[in-house]
Write a structure and sequence with these properties.
Elements lengths: L1 E3 L5 E3 L6 H6 L13 E2 L6 H6 L6 E8 L7 H11 L5 E8 L14 E7 L9 H20 L2 E5 L3 E3 L11 E5 L32 E9 H20 L7 H12 L4 E3 L20 E3 L4 H5 L1
The structure holds 5-phenyl-uridine-5'-alpha-d-galactosyl-diphosphate (2GW) and manganese (II) ion.
Length: 295
């Protein structure tokens, strides 16, 4: 049971969390102002939730591994087999320019790897933005035949704890771990009105991270198609949003509120402060040398 606390944020009923954690979380959101749940350890019962999804549910996990980023695949997939949707049907869609570099993995029953070749000739700055285009095309052509839900992730990450059906919903986004305690005036939204990702000072709920969003195939199609078109319009105007497709994702999610929001347990970075606020670190950034890996 969720109780709305006087501060306006909901908190789990007493007993759902240990007292100590309850205290620490009083200032952390458990419900959005439009009444979508924010998923933290202690707010849900995995066994009960599992009964609410059919046993043959198919979940697609999309990742991109272009150029040097193929080196992250081994750790990503290995950890996903251990922690991601254990016991469920999972289709991994790996978009890469080097299919031969995808490590061979023995997968649990009902889990499949699909390797999809993409080119790497676009300038490196575009690799992460081009994901929106590729995902929207694939959602239309293929994903809707094969899976009910899509989970779209960065590949330079590793699972450190369980990620299960609690993340599934119509449209799901994750709080950026660097901004979840800050007022929206500090969020790094695109601030130039010339960009289609522009967010005015009076708008904005949360700052979401591009590294993890999810939803039904049709919702992911709408999101990725809209963001891709906005990116192309910006390009034709000679502007690129400050945080690339993450800026467009944030613009989209202001107009289309997520039906579920994931706490920073679902995207963490060990370099950030306040890690002690999290009971679990389920999906964590792998440290990387930015200059080397991107060139
Ligand atoms: C990306 C930027 C600059 C140079 C190369 C790349 C690159 C990205 C690449 O050479 N190969 C590649 O496969 N990628 C894919 O794009 C890969 O899946 C990677 O995880 C994803 C996002 O790039 P990444 O992880 O370097 O960006 P981060 O960790 O700073 O992530 C945040 O900001 C990005 C936009 O600037 C995205 O929104 C991302 O979703 C955010 O997590
Ligand atoms: Mn990343």
């Amino acid at each position: 049971a969720i109780i709305i606390s006087p501060a306006g944020w909901a908190r789990p009923a007493d007993g759902a969390l240990h007292g100590q954690h309850l205290m620490m979380r009083r200032s952390l959101p458990l419900l959005t102002p439009w009444l979508a749940p924010v998923v933290w350890e202690g707010t849900f019962d995995p066994r009960l939730l599992n009964t609410q999804f059919k046993s043959d549910l198919r979940i697609g996990l999309t990742i991109f591994a272009v150029r040097k980023y193929v080196m992250f695949l081994q750790m990503f997939l290995h950890s996903a087999e251990k922690f991601f949707m254990v016991g469920r049907k999972v289709h991994y869609y790996i978009f890469t320019d080097q299919p031969d570099k995808v490590p061979y993995m023995s997968l649990a029953p009902g889990r499949f790897v699909h390797i999809l070749q993409i080119s790497a000739h676009s300038p490196w700055q575009e690799i992460s933005m081009r994901r929106m285009e590729t995902l929207s095309n694939m959602a239309k052509q293929r994903f809707y035949n094969e899976v009910e839900y899509l989970v779209c992730m960065d590949v330079d990450m590793v699972f450190g704890d369980s990620v299960g059906v609690e993340i599934l919903g119509e449209l799901v986004a994750t709080l950026h771990p660097g901004f979840f305690r800050l007022h929206r005036a500090r969020f790094p939204y695109e601030q130039r009105p010339k960009s289609r990702a522009y967010v005015s000072p009076s708008e904005g709920d949360f700052y979401y991270m591009g590294a993890f969003f999810a939803g039904t195939v049709v919702q992911i199609y709408r999101l990725t198609d809209t963001c891709h078109r906005a990116i192309m319009e910006d390009k034709s105007q000679g502007i690129e949003a400050v945080w690339h497709e993450e800026s467009h994702l944030n613009r989209y999610l202001i107009q289309h509120k997520p039906t579920k929001v994931l706490s920073p347990e679902y995207v963490w970075d060990m370099n950030l402060p306040h890690g002690d606020l999290l009971e679990k670190k389920r999906f964590v950034a792998v440290p990387k040398n930015h200059d080397w890996i991107r060139n």
